[in-house]
Amino acid sequence: MATKQFKDISPYKRTIGTPSEDYLYSKYETDLAAKVTTSVNVTNVAIFGIGRAGTIHLSSLARNPRAQILYIVDDIVEKHKRLQDYWSLHDTKFLTSKESDVIFSDPKVHAVVVATPTFAHEHIVKSALNAKKAVFCEKPLAQERNVCIELYKLSKEVGKPLLTAFNRRFDPSFSNIRDRVHKGEVGHVQTIKCCNRDSPIPSFGYIKTSVGIYHDCCIHDIDTLCWVLGEFPTKVSSMGYTHVEELKAIDDFDTVSVTLLYPSGTIGMIELSRNSCYGYDQRLEVFGPRGMIRADNEQPIHCIDSQIGLTGIKTAPIWYSYPSRYHVAYQAEMEHFFDLVEGKANEPFIKGHEILAVNKIAAAAEESARTGKFIDLTWTKDDFEI
Ligand SMILES: NC(=O)c1ccc[n+]([C@@H]2O[C@H](COP(=O)([O-])OP(=O)(O)OC[C@H]3O[C@@H](n4cnc5c(N)ncnc54)[C@H](O)[C@@H]3O)[C@@H](O)[C@H]2O)c1
Question: Is 29's C-beta closer than 6 angstroms to any atom of ligand 1?
Fold first, then answer.
């Protein structure tokens, strides 16, 4: 069949434009235009804690023209010189936590990034806010409800933003699902489920100080589900089991399922493991009367091979762990933080009441796993007013 009849007009006469899904090309177009809309702001930052999470944020900040790293605080002094040389941070001062008052009394510091172990968050966040610095704090902000309330109230009082970092909110695929759910593309969501299998298993040292799988890990999933749906559950049940002997000794679980019933009738399901042997398994799915949308696992390499013998089709493994899988999301959450600091965004994308709600749901899920009971959750005005 001659296909000449389908000959199209010249591509010069039709512009298709950048698809909204290509967030990297969109960013490139912004860079290409190099258009400065307001005066160029550089945020002077101090980072607390350069471990697993701190390294991700240091890497974003060191490459970001919007940031100047004035201080780095870490109690492992041997790291200081190595970090300074590796990241060429020759104008950055390195301190231990005992010396951190220098930062709080330095008016040049606009913002503090907190990536220390969770138990140290409260003191640093409080000191930073009292010193009128904007704060980006790794999750969980704190385990105790009253501490979270106090910190958010303080942030309001001093008029400085407090952003608790839930990186998955900034993941392009998860955001895509959320936007499409809010447009009604699958109708009223009947089920939403996510799979979160960690890789590699976090060090025993980390897990020991991590406040347990529900508050350390499951909060990401609870937050994702509630954010996508736009509501909080009224019934929660959960089961947990510990396969890893070392974790049994500290009374933590490594395998967890959580079921949530939302007021509109949606059922949420979370499956969680601390130890996936084939990579960082992160999937999210919504299902409703108009269809299903799923965010599948992503891979660094997209080759597909069929080689000698009938061995089937092979692909590259999925991303190994969170720094690679959520690379884009970590950068986007830091950009959002700068928007807050510079006043380009009015309020944190992750609100104080959402942090409290997620903590409440995580505590209910843990209680269910430990007691074998369904837990009812009620929500009053108090839950939404901080
Ligand atoms: N959002 C995420 O994807 C993600 C991933 C990992 C960890 N986290 C969170 O990040 C935080 C840190 O976890 P991590 O895995 O990076 O821990 P880590 O143990 O790898 O690193 C913590 C670092 O903080 C330093 N430190 C300890 N006390 C300090 C203090 N008072 N002041 C300054 N530095 C101090 C330690 O020396 C260490 O280098 C935790 O709250 C954790 O829940 C979030």
Answer: no
